Amino acid sequence: MGLADLPPPLSRPFGEFAMPAVQVRLVAEGPESERLERLLGEAFELDGYPVTREETVAYSEIWTVDALIFDADDEADAVARVREALGAEAEDHALTTTVLDLDANWVAMSEEIRHPVAAGRFFVHGSHDRHRRPPNGVAIEIDAEMAFGTGHHATTWACLAALDALLKRRSYARPLDLGTGTGVLAIALARVLHVPIVATDIDPVAVAIARANAHLNGVGREIRAVVADGMKARLLAEEAPYDLVVANILAGPLTRLAAPVARSLSYDATVVLSGLRTIERGRVLAAWAACGLHFVGEVERDGWLALVLANGRR
Question: What class of enzyme is it (predicted)?
Answer without folding.
Answer: transferase
